[in-house]
Amino acid sequence: MTMITGQIKNQIDQIWDTFWESAGVTNPMSVLEQMTYLFFMKMLDDMQLKQERVSEEIGIEMCCDVSFGYGTWHNPDTGDDVPVDNLRWHVFKQMEPEEMYRTVSRDVFTYIKNLNSGTESAYSRFMGNAVFLIQSPRALVKIIDGIDTLEMNDRDTMGDVYEYILGKMAASGKNGQFRTPRHIIRMMVELMQPTLSDTICDPAMGSAGFIVEAAKYVKEHYSAELMKQQNDEHFRRTMLHGFDTDQTMLRIGAMNLMLHNIEDPDVAFRDSLSSDNTDTSLYTLILANPPFAGNLDYEAVSKSLLATAKTKKTELLFLSLFLRSLAMGGRCASIVPDGVLTGTSNAHKAIRKAIVDDNRLEAVISMPSGVFQPYSGVSTAILIFTKTGAGGTDKVWFYDMKADGYSLDQKRTEVGENDIPDIIARFHSLDAGGENDRTRTNKSFLVPIEEIHEHDYNLAFNTYKETVREVVEYEAPEVLIGRAAALAAKIADGINSLQSLITADHEA
């Protein structure tokens, strides 16, 4: 899944173990968050060192746009004036354990929490309520030594490193609900094929997996176009949008984006379902895995969302939000729980009707329940639709994914069976007409809108699947009766023989 070497994985594993065994930090989310703070400290110093080298080479004095500046810095928490050099990674990593711990926990951490100007980034905006949890100087030394071996300037590698750490968090079985498996995200991105002209949003971004993967896809396919300043500016600042209500996840997501060389995306603290969110007809592409099974009070939900489907269920409200937020012609690929496909409430039917009749539903891809193991066995599907405001659904493509390249148990080990390449290939060849010839006994087929109407907008794969029943030829009744009679006679003979043996034994 990642391009990082076994050596780097071992280094990350050792850092992770140090948190558990020596630093007293055992919650996987907290481990990831503390590692993120230290990554940021090192990245800031690495950026300034790079600027200083360039300045020295060209003989021009650096401007003030540097991470730390020079001279002293006033710590608002302690009231002390601290030499700026002491805040820099390459300096404090040389200190004795006790001095290093005091400097990092008291001064450097306070500095990055208050870093909201000059070197402001999407990450630094979410540092306000951050807490430093490492309690042991010697544990901090081991962690800093471990991180120091990572080449933070290679953003591609560091992006993979961070994905590996996110994977460890998910595999721990705690807080993994914030992370959609990377290969599922990649599949959805490849299905939607984002371009440089897109404006992309995930209104429940978590660790920013969808935004990061969409950005990677664009970089892979439009590298030449990104050389133009206008395209590069759009890519870095206006293409990508993500929102969440969890400050911790915003920090983690912003760091994920920074490590993939996306430094100032539109990432913000926002309750996407509330009236505070007024996004309407803005985005050309939405990629999301919104929260399932949540229930909100009507008062907490934007009235414009309730107009489509009056419900308290978050999975339905988010679909209503997507329809409102998309620009005309905008596309959406969203993971939904199976209940969205089959629910019989008025709200369930209303949202499905809105997608099918008022817009254009293109595909329903059912996924096996093990996709979100080890932390959830929920059955899900991917809905792909386009906002038209005037219908357009003709035929809907259904696919029943049976395998995603990993075992569907708690271990999720790699296996050979994988439907994902087939899903991508078939979805992008729907216009070629091949799916028209598929029968309802196949993994995929097209269903006309009239049939969906007949089934009350039910979108479950099995509703339209044709089950083939084998014809079993049974023998004639008289043959079966004769065979049963012969078997009964044989049993009777056996009982008689046994009875004779018992009688003879008694007489003897």
With helices defined by DSSP (H or I, 4 residues minimum), what is the helix count? Answer: 18
Low-confidence stretches: 173-178
Q: How is the largest sheet built, in terms of strand order?
A: 5-4-3-6-7-9-8-10-13
Distance between the termini: 80 Å
Radius of gyration, CA atoms, in whole angstroms: 30 Å
Strand residue content: 5-15%
How many strands? 13
Quick structural summary:
This protein has 508 residues and is of the alpha/beta class. Helix content is 44%, strand content 14%. It is globular and about 110 Å long.
Descriptive overview:
By secondary structure, the protein is α/β, with parallel strands linked by helices. Among the domains are: 6-159, Ferritin; 271-464, Rossmann fold (3-Layer(aba) Sandwich), CATH 3.40.50. Helices cover 44% and strands 14% of the residues. The chain has helices at residues 6-21, 28-58, 89-92, 97-113, 137-148, 155-171, 182-192, 209-221, 229-238, 247-259, 303-306, 314-325, 338-342, 346-357, 420-427, 449-454, 461-464, 477-507; strands at residues 72-74, 81-83, 200-202, 240-244, 266-269, 283-288, 326-337, 360-367, 380-386, 395-400, 404-406, 414-418, 444-448. It has a nine-stranded mixed beta sheet with strand order 5-4-3-6-7-9-8-10-13, sandwiched between helices. A hairpin with a 7-residue loop joins strand 11 and strand 12. Helix 4 (97-113) packs across helix 5 and helix 7 (182-192) runs parallel beside helix 15 (420-427). Residues 173-178 have low confidence and may be disordered.
